[in-house]
Amino acid sequence: MGEQLGLRERKKRETRQRIADIAMGLFMARGFDQVTVAEVARTADVSVNTVFNYFRTKEDLFLDRMELVEDMPSRVVRERRPGESVVAAARRAFLERLDARDWSSGMNEGADVFTRMVEQSASLTARVRELGERQEEALARTLADETDADPDDMTPWLVAAQLSAVTRRLTAHAMRRRMAGEDAERVIADLRAHAEAAFDLLEKGIGAYGAR
């Protein structure tokens, strides 16, 4: 029975991934708003109902790693090393993903195409913004759990907001340069320097910044 359940789950994951891959191919070829769910289903040789069994909306087809992205900062906090602060863990994880050219860093091949498609679709832009908000809320709840914070303590929410803002702005800055055609290696090198400075600000505070 266990083997049968394992095989069934593996087939479901494979079907889900195949549908998502086919959908992304269509989106990249023609644009997100120009492709319908019915076309995705027809190309994948499944029914429209099957597509919606795996993906709640058309936007979820495009953002098929949404759940993984939403949990990523929280996972970094949960898996931080003994004695490692939350900011130190976030810095290390960001730089490791950047060095690895991981898709989550936005520095992988095709990330500029992905970003351009998001910017060209109002519904995708809204969904990505919603994903960022959910990611920040999940991080705040994780921080509250990890530090056993009082329900009225705003600290986890403020820390989550600052960490989220730093990573969001760093990634957006790099993606603008990539979309403008700048060399990827140069952008990555600059992004590493910007990231070090940004996380230094988080660790040391901004109290002296801009003083006259």
TrEMBL record:
DNA-binding region: 36-55
Pfam families noted in UniProt: TetR_N
Gene Ontology molecular function, alphabetical: DNA-binding transcription factor activity; transcription cis-regulatory region binding
Keyword entries, A-Z: DNA-binding, Transcription, Transcription regulation
Residue ranges of domain HTH tetR-type in the record: 13-73
Domain of life: Bacteria
Name of the protein described by the UniProt record: AcrR family transcriptional regulator
